[in-house]
From TrEMBL:
Its EC number is 2.7.11.1. It comes from the Bacteria. InterPro entries: AAA+_ATPase (IPR003593), Circadian_clock_KaiC-rel (IPR051347), KaiC (IPR030665), KaiC-like_dom (IPR014774), KaiC_dom (IPR010624), P-loop_NTPase (IPR027417). The keyword Repeat applies. SUPFAM superfamilies: P-loop containing nucleoside triphosphate hydrolases (SSF52540). It is an enzyme of class 2 (transferase). This is non-specific serine/threonine protein kinase. Keywords: Hydrolase, Kinase, Phosphoprotein, Repeat, Transferase. The keyword Repeat applies.
């Protein structure tokens, strides 16, 4: 038996074995609980299908769903239940007879005993290695008491343990939420939850409440149910990832940018671009991404705020062929619907691309990312883990945040400036009867940078930086005062 406790039974659910540090311990009983609709049946079927594919005998005992409903669920996911034993435990045919309902012949004692015996008989016919019992709610109703219910679950546990079967019991939590009868009996407990935001699709997450003798990944983990079954996105822990790489200086798109940034951007660092709407934050980031691709690197851009085709069109307007970069396989551009994708799924997608060799990641913008978060504090924690993970893997990250307002005092809806290694600030200002744009670097951890403010323009051939605005005071306020000097030579000419 000790050797058996070292063996693991894979759940067949992408990501969940990672959360459980290998899967379920063979020969033990586990509890999977969650309200109706959270995916218990689907996960239970995946558990059995993984066992069937591994050459094990498997059995699904259902008291809450019919065999036909189970097979329909399998078909909806593209599965076949060939090789899966299904035992549909239905009440006696005459149980619905009004006369029989009032007879002592069908008391809870007799029904509970008969139910247990029929489960044992089905088990002995197949002698399975894996069992799913769906659900404990029916056994709880028949027991009509916490003590009898606990004894019944214990008897099932000892019976299955003698045959060294791995058992997954499902519970729909329809009873008192404080009832933890099975928690102390089970070897491990997993809980599935469904959240209903004010807008957007439902959000599902799971948590491991208990696992005897096993170090598991704690906290909540997002998951989805799609065609093909349940997919879990383990919570990202940056400390578990890291590799050696050279933190060399990456060249900038132009000499002016190199001067402004003190030579360039350090590999593995994060760059935050702040500014009001329309200042060109997305195009500025895209300029750095295009520079990375020209060096032979792979990059990925996640767009939260803009339609993908429009993004491609705007890039062509400044001389950047994004479609050509995508066709070459060097660039991945994904449009993210914050109302549909959970933060856990987003982090998992970023991690997947990094594993495939992406070395530059751009997120445009954090305002859209924030829409996927219930609280700003949770957003900051997610971004912190994500940036730490990318930093440890040598990935250079670019983030944009749209500030509220156009000129004067600006408000940042998501303050993550302390997380970024470099902060670039974009501003509008008025001078000589024109609305102009200014750029400055307000923070750079790894090296010195230029502390001036430069005007920039966006034309058909990209970004252009002017000379430092040394004769202007109050550019960042939006309406600067001009000191005597050759002002015209410091401003950029009109561009097409």
């Amino acid at each position: 038996m000790n050797d058996l406790l070292t063996e693991q039974a894979s759940l067949g659910v992408a990501g969940l074995d990672d959360v459980l540090n290998g899967g379920l311990t063979k020969g033990c009983l586990f509890l999977l609980e969650g309200s109706p609709g959270t995916g218990k049946t689907t996960l239970g079927l995946q558990f059995l299908l993984a066992g069937r594919d591994a050459g094990e005998r498997v059995l699904y005992v259902t008291m809450s769903e019919t065999e036909s409903e189970l097979r329909n669920t399998a078909v909806s996911h593209g599965w076949t239940l060939d090789g899966v034993g299904i035992f549909e435990l239905v009440p006696p045919e005459n149980l619905l007879d009004e006369a029989q309902q009032q007879s002592l012949l069908y008391s809870s004692d007799l029904e509970l005993g008969e139910t247990t015996n029929r489960i044992f008989q089905a088990f002995e016919q197949i002698n399975p290695d894996r069992v799913v019992l769906d659900s404990l709610a029916e056994i709880r109703l028949l027991a009509q008491g916490s003590l009898r219910y606990r004894r019944q679950v214990l008897s099932l546990k000892h019976y299955f343990a003698q045959s060294r079967a791995t058992v997954l019991m499902l519970d729909d939590l329809t009873s008192d939420s404080t009832d933890r009868t099975v928690h102390s009996v089970a070897h491990g407990v997993l809980r599935l939850e469904e959240l209903s935001p004010d807008y957007g699709a439902e959000r599902r997450r799971l948590r491991v409440l208990k696992y005897r003798g096993r170090q598991f990944r704690g906290g909540y983990h997002d998951f989805v149910i799609r065609k093909g079954g349940v997919k879990v996105f383990p919570r990202l822990v940056s400390g578990e990832h890291g590799e050696e790489f050279e933190r060399d200086m990456l060249p900038c798109p132009s000499p002016q940018f190199s001067a402004l940034l003190g030579g360039g951007i350090e590999r593995g660092s994060s760059v935050l671009v702040l500014g009001p709407a329309g200042t060109g934050k997305s195009l500025l980031v895209l300029t750095f991404v295009a520079s990375a691709i020209s060096r032979g690197e792979r990059a990925a851009i996640f767009i939260f705020d803009e339609e993908r085709a429009l993004f491609f069109q705007r890039a062509r307007g400044v001389g950047l062929d994004v479609q050509g970069m995508v066709d070459s396989g060097r660039l991945v551009v994904e449009q993210v619907d914050a109302a549909q994708m959970t933060p856990g799924e987003f982090s998992a997608r970023v991690r997947e691309l990094v594993e495939e060799g992406v070395r530059t990641v751009a997120v445009d913008s954090l305002n859209g990312y924030q829409a996927a978060m219930p609280e700003e504090q949770a957003l900051v924690l997610h971004i912190h883990e994500l940036l730490q993970f990318l930093n440890r893997r040598g990935v250079t990250t670019y983030l944009t945040v749209a500030q509220h307002g156009l000129v004067g005092d600006m408000k940042t809806p998501v303050d993550v400036t302390y997380l970024a290694d470099t902060v670039i600030l974009l501003r509008y200002f008025e001078a000589l009867g024109r609305v102009r744009r200014a750029i400055s670097v307000v923070k750079k951890r790894a090296s010195a940078h230029e502390d001036t403010i430069r005007e920039y323009s966006i034309g058909r051939d990209g970004f252009h930086l002017g000379e430092p605005l040394i004769h202007f005071q109050g550019v960042l306020r939006g309406v600067p005062s001009i000191s005597p000097g050759d002002v015209e030579s410091r401003l950029l000419p009109d561009r097409p």
